[in-house]
Automatic annotation (TrEMBL), chain A:
It comes from Azospirillum griseum. It is an enzyme of class 1 (oxidoreductase). This is glycine dehydrogenase (aminomethyl-transferring). The keyword Oxidoreductase applies. The glycine cleavage system catalyzes the degradation of glycine. The P protein binds the alpha-amino group of glycine through its pyridoxal phosphate cofactor; CO(2) is released and the remaining methylamine moiety is then transferred to the lipoamide cofactor of the H protein.
UniProtKB/TrEMBL annotation, chain B:
Its EC number is 1.4.4.2. The glycine cleavage system catalyzes the degradation of glycine. The P protein binds the alpha-amino group of glycine through its pyridoxal phosphate cofactor; CO(2) is released and the remaining methylamine moiety is then transferred to the lipoamide cofactor of the H protein. It comes from the Bacteria. This is Probable glycine dehydrogenase (decarboxylating) subunit 1. It catalyses: N(6)-[(R)-lipoyl]-L-lysyl-[glycine-cleavage complex H protein] + glycine + H(+) = N(6)-[(R)-S(8)-aminomethyldihydrolipoyl]-L-lysyl-[glycine-cleavage complex H protein] + CO2.
Length: 522, 447
């Protein structure tokens, strides 16, 4: 090997055994380190915990036999730490950069909230402890309920639902219960705009309703006349997201609510986009009867790679009697918890215990931190950021509707027409630029949708960098560089994955390879 | 306002770009009557970390933390020791602050975790395949029944009297609104119920819990055979997942679906949530499953990778024809579960399960020695039922006054019924002196 004067090799010799993809020996690429499955790191008998001796007693397992084995791998603690650390490094996260997923609200997750949720007085409390020993937990739930009712102007709230879609279920159940209580069984339909999130029709259908779609107008909003034409004695209610999934405020919302009420129906508002108006507009003033709130969107509890969420539901006076159990009450002896529906109109339950307490602590910590003035500013900044992104991109991309938008801005793929480049390609190219893609192909009301939600926690510098990257990609697409886009992403731990093959012959778990015993014995 | 990076100068220059006169002007599509003129009334203004910590710390201090006293509560939520590694890994921002892994190229971490989680759950339950988690055990149970109705095209579910009442009620709520029959059998405190004769040609499924809410451990192999013969599915619910480290798993007994609560691994008590529902089935039902699934595939360079798959079952594709309206799982709780199970491994999980059982046997003997107290169970894992000479709710309050959390009165779960029964759970966190303190205090309260 030739050396330079410092004794360093002047040329890197090629090795026969290098990885064909990475060009390195290991298949690693700098900080991107390949990590096998945990099951592929097994050494029988090895363990990552030390446990006390088992007292010698005769077992009392009745007719059930102890199992022979489970089949789990044995690793020591350092291996487990390294495994999950390396896996974490293969994820994009809001902590690492702009995450402009429209309708998902990927805003900063304050660490104070994590700290509060881990206070032993909240985290280490059993849900069935005597009520006298959990007064602070009930006080917290009551405080959260007060904030939610005040911010929405609504009469009642349940904290029980575990997620947004679970909250939708709860809201539609309440509507059904209210009609049933009136002896009205003729209402078999729920109206849902075609721009709705998929959970809306899925929820209505799960509750036994026929789903009828309402078309949109050319300006991206519910067609009021079409809605009125569908209203009648067979309609139980309307499910409407506002601001809607095109990022627009439904200007006719009050007329819509009035029409639904006049026809004897209830107005379910999907609160997924409440973050756009929180602290500035109270849904009660829009005529809403019931609305779920995603604590993991508006109130910044972490998305956690897909949950846990939390979906409290607020109710108008008309639906308040149907609020499901459990709920907190307070009287002379402090706080109490109503856990049984009894013979009243309340229904339930929706899940075990009392709701997603760990999310309640985080959400309240966020609310207290922002306060009324901070929430006013936060929703204002969220809307300003989205409008800024829209304004800076509308000359190179095609905005689907005129602004102003609310917290997110919607583009479609007309700007890609004739280029051979698709919305998906733009998204994948953005990944190479260090950004998480926007929401793609949703809502369904425009072709090749690109829905961008920057949130209020992005700085102008961060937005400008994102805008610059998107502008350059749009220009590059128009320049005809199709091959560049189709090969993206190039710089990620994995490149485009074969989703068709995954679905055709699903491999949903690891299984030991043939001859595994021989390998394990090495 | 520490979470807001825009400066006033930024706002002005950005507004100019949008050609709006003000931020308020951007809200002009909101009907004027519904627009507030300034920050909402009746709520405080922003606070620093110190003030928030003070306020919330004061609330937390009003609760008795289970770990600060001898604690013997179970009934679907168990206090286990969670290794320090778990929470440190869970708090890595790349896990904590990521979204659902819809863009697989930048989500391989979460996806591989889910694939490993699905494998761990399959192994623990003895089933072919598991999903990427559900909201909690109770919702998993209700979804299992809905799935059984779909598979069998029948509409009558039989719910065992050993099923946790919260699981029963979650299922009957769905039954009322979704439209199926959920026949709940009377509470079975002695563990002798036999539902085989109740199964008919309308029965979609039988739901049993093992160990039951009263702690009884049973072999359901025979019931599985009867279900199969009559075209019904056997759903086995497990609320204490650690029991799967010791007992013959539901899959080996012939369960068609397992719906379980996974909180025992990696997750704190959290006053009841968030927890993590486990959902596992036989291979032939994969396409009827609710919830997310992660699958193995290859990338453009032929390397192994993972994606969310079979999403044609799900609401964002199928809308009103979806198998369920569920849009999320319990990702971070599943991660915590998975890390804890990885640390335990084969040796640790077996040891921990045996340790829990042995300590529960010791506790049962100590309580049985208290005058007037009778242990109801012949069999149990780490939780059992005792019969007291006084109403259990009052006894538990009296124990709490002595700073002992002495189990769950059965009447808390069955209002107005069985008020002399108490559920007591024992885990590795209970020391010998905790157990003696419980028995001694119980003797005092009862005397």
């Amino acid at each position: 090997m030739s050396m330079n004067s410092q004794g360093r090799p002047s040329a890197i010799p090629a090795l026969a055994s290098t990885n064909a993809v990475t060009g390195t020996i290991t298949g690693n690429r700098g900080l991107q380190i390949e990590e096998p499955l945990i099951f592929e790191q097994d050494a029988p008998g090895r363990c990552g915990v030390d446990l006390p001796e088992i007292p010698p007693v005769a077992t009392r397992l009745g007719a059930v036999k102890p199992r022979a084995s489970v089949g789990l791998p044995g690793l020591a603690e350092p291996q487990v730490v390294r495994h999950y650390t390396r896996l974490s490094q293969k994820n994009y996260a809001i902590d690492s950069g702009l995450y402009p997923l429209g309708s998902c609200t990927m805003k900063h997750n304050p660490r104070l909230n994590e700290k509060m949720a881990r206070l032993p007085g909240f985290a280490d409390v059993h849900p069935l402890q005597p009520i006298s020993t959990v007064q602070g937990a009930l006080e917290l739930m009551d405080a959260l309920a007060h904030w939610l009712k005040t911010l929405t102007g609504m009469a009642a709230v349940t904290l029980a639902p575990a997620a947004g879609a679970h909250g939708e279920m709860c809201g539609i159940m309440a509507i059904r219960a209210a009609h049933e209580a009136k002896g009205d069984s003729a209402r078999t339909k729920i109206l849902v705009p075609e721009s709705a999130h998929g959970t809306n029709p899925a929820t209505a259908a799960a509750c036994g309703y026929a789903v009828e779609s309402i078309p949109a107008t050319a300006d991206g909003r519910v067609d009021l006349d079409a809605l009125k034409a569908k209203l009648g004695p067979d309609v139980a209610g309307l499910m409407l997201t506002n601001p809607n999934t095109c990022g627009l405020f439904e200007r006719d919302i009050i007329a819509i609510a009035d029409a639904v009420h006049a026809a004897g129906g209830y107005f379910y508002c999907d609160g997924a986009n409440f973050n756009a108006i929180v602290g500035r507009v109270r849904p009660a003033d829009l005529g809403v009867d019931v609305m779920h709130i995603n604590l993991h969107k508006t109130f910044s509890t972490p998305h956690g790679g897909g949950g846990p969420g939390s979906g409290p539901v607020v109710f108008s006076e008309a639906l308040a009697p149907y609020v499901p159990v459990p709920y907190v009450t307070h009287g002379a002896n402090g706080f109490a918890l109503v856990e049984e529906a009894g013979d009243g109109p309340a229904f339930g339950r929706m899940k075990a215990f009392h709701g997603q307490m760990g999310m309640f602590t985080r959400a309240l910590s966020y609310m207290l931190s922002h306060g009324a003035d901070g929430l006013w500013q936060a929703s204002g900044d969220a809307v300003l950021n989205a409008n800024y992104v829209m304004a800076k991109l509308e000359d190179v991309m095609t905005a689907s509707f005129d602004g102003p938008c609310m917290h997110e801005c919607l583009f479609d793929d007309r700007f890609l027409k004739g280029t051979g480049v698709t919305t998906l390609d733009i998204a994948k190219a953005l990944i190479d630029e260090g950004f998480h893609p926007m929401t793609m192909y949703f809502p369904l009301v425009v072709h090749g949708a690109l829905l961008i939600e920057p949130t209020e926690t992005e700085s102008k510098a961060s937005l400008d960098q994102f805008i610059g990257a998107l502008r350059a990609l749009a220009e590059r697409a128009k320049g005809g560089d199709v091959a560049y886009f189709q090969a993206a992403p190039r710089l990620t731990p994995r490149r485009r994955l074969d989703e068709t093959a995954a679905a055709r012959k699903p491999i949903l778990r690891w299984t030991p390879p043939a001859g595994a015993d021989a390998v394990a014995a090495e | 306002m520490r979470y807001l990076p825009l400066t006033e100068a930024d706002r002005q220059s950005m507004l100019a770009a949008t050609r709006a006169a003000s931020v308020n002007d951007l809200f002009r599509d909101v009907p004027e009557a519904a627009r507030l003129s300034g920050p909402i009334g009746g709520l405080p203004n922003h606070m620093g970390e110190l003030e928030v910590e003070r306020l919330m710390g004061a609330m937390a201090a009003k609760n008795i933390a289970a770990g600060s006293v001898p604690s013997f509560l179970g009934a679907g939520a168990y206090r286990h020791h969670v290794p320090a590694t778990v929470d440190h890994m869970v708090q890595r921002g790349e896990f904590l602050t990521a979204y659902t892994p819809y863009q697989p190229e930048v989500s391989q971490g979460t996806l591989q975790v889910l694939f490993e989680f699905q494998t761990q759950v399959s192994l623990l339950t003895g089933m072919d395949v598991a999903n990427a988690s559900m909201y909690d055990g109770a919702t998993a149970c209700a979804e299992a029944v809905i799935m059984a109705n779909r598979v069998t095209r029948r509409k009558k579910a039989l719910l065992s009297g050993g099923l946790h009442p919260h699981y029963r009620d979650t299922t009957t709520t769905d039954a009322r609104f979704i439209g199926f029959d959920a026949v709940a059998f009377p509470a079975d405190p002695t563990g002798v119920e036999d539902l085989a004769a109740q199964i008919d040609d309308k029965t979609s499924c039988v739901v049993v819990q093992n160990p039951s809410v009263f702690g009884h451990v049973r072999d359901y192999s025979e019931l599985a055979k009867v279900c199969q013969a009559k075209g019904a599915l056997l759903i086995v619910v497990v609320t204490e997942a650690l029991s799967l480290g010791l007992l013959t798993p539901p899959g080996d007994m012939g369960a068609d679906i397992v719906a379980a609560e996974g909180q025992s691994f990696g997750n704190a008590l959290n006053f009841g949530g968030p927890y993590v529902g486990l959902f596992a089935v036989k291979d032939k039902y994969v396409r009827q499953m609710p919830g997310r699934l992660c699958g193995e595939t290859v990338d453009a360079d032929g390397r192994r990778g993972f994606v969310l798959t079979l999403s044609t079952r799900e609401q964002h594709i199928r809308r009103e024809k979806a198998t369920s309206n569920i849009c999320t799982n319990a990702g971070l709780c599943a991660l915590a579960f998975s890390i804890h199970v990885s640390l335990l491994g084969e040796a640790g999980i077996t040891h921990l399960a045996q340790l829990n059982h042995a300590k529960a046997v010791q506790m049962a003997d100590k309580l049985a020695a208290v005058p007037g107290v009778e242990v109801v169970n012949d069999s149990f894992f780490n939780e059992f039922t005792v019969k007291l000479p006084k109403p259990a709710a009052g006894v538990v309050e009296a124990l709490a006054a002595r700073r002992i959390l002495g189990g769950v009165p059965v009447s808390r779960l069955y209002p107005g019924e069985m008020d002399d029964l108490l559920l007591a759970a024992v885990t590795e966190t209970n020391t010998e002196s905790d157990m003696d303190a419980f028995a001694t205090a119980l003797a005092e309260v009862l005397s």
